[in-house]
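Figure 2 data, in text form.
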Amino acid sequence: MEHCGGPRFGQIRFASTLAIPLLACGAGVFCCLQECCAQDLIQGSGHNGRVIVLNADNAILETKEPRKDIPCNVTPGKTALGFDLKFHAVYDVSVPMRELNGGEDTLTMIFRVTPSDHPDSPIYFSQKVEVPKLDQSAGGDAVLQGSFIMGPGTYQIDWLMRDRSERVCSSYWTYTAALQPKEHDIKLAIEPNRVEAMDPQPFRPEPPIAREKNAGLNVKVLVNFAPQRFLAAAMQPLDTEALVSILRNISREPKIGKFSVVAFNMQEQRVVYRQDEADQIDFPAIGDSLNSVKLGTVRLSQLNQKHSDTEFLTQLINNEMAHDRPDAVIFAGPKVMMEAGVSNESIRALSGDLSYPVFYMNYNLTPLDNPWRDAIGDVVKRLRGIQYTIARPQDLWNAWSDIMSHIVKLKVARVAMMPSATR
């Protein structure tokens, strides 16, 4: 079965926005019905908020008796921890195509999410899906998908959908979001019993962080913003989320005072963004710069130059590591498989004057499918660095905790070895 909606994480399909309408356009094949429709948080939701909902809709939500005026089926998915260290919940709604063949229509969905620990603070969402005029012979099911974000807790979901004829389908279920025993060390990025809309802007600004008084660490991060599949024509939402989440995890570290970021793309073999020794990472600027990346194409100059990818990576490493003296250099991104690696001469020239640790956070959702070390991992190994495989949110948390432990220990050791007059 093919899907054009969004990538899967476990049993969860993550979307770049809150919901992706899909249309059954063939046996077992789903294609997009229209552009993504955002599920909007209704203003006033939450504690002591006043939400304006139609009396008829509110009565249906309160009854908690499923209705099938529109013969739709609602299938809740399992909650899953995302790379953003928040729980994601998703549900699918299927409607027989014969119910939508009467001409143009509008499907309006209203649902509320109520934390069990705060029954007086429900969160309301709304969504409208414009259904175009469809072929009378179209069969199968139209499938809509909705999702939202939650913190740890148990939640009651009361959901309804109505068309212009005021036919209603309603459903009710519960979600439970909880860390697994092996994940209990993770510090989540969302509070318990909190509900949020999915963020349609992955590169939104990061809120200010309360830095430690003597936050003197200075790190440089080199991120290969590229999809898991090297020649893919576009970044999948999950790939973008994972790489941005790695950067956000680094940016939230209170012990770091200065950040240098180099965003590059190995497919295009160019640096797309650079930020030097800033107080915080400029996520909107990174997002704007990545709009210039044209995946799925190869420049003529790359075809004419044998091993142009090796030459680019070699120059990138030499330019970014040969002169600066940060407290650590961190590579991040998917695997980069090349015919020829960086030469031993380049590595020896660099490692001879290397005074800081090097790390590689390798984003790889299917490590068993490609267990071999890539070009960046090979460089990091020869520089006596450490590589981490990021396949799950837990891997991201564990890797960053270990990296910070190494950086702090080495920083303390270097300061202890300095003459007292220069400290």
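Caption note: The helical segments are 55-63, 237-251, 283-290, 300-304, 308-321, 344-351, 375-382, 393-417.
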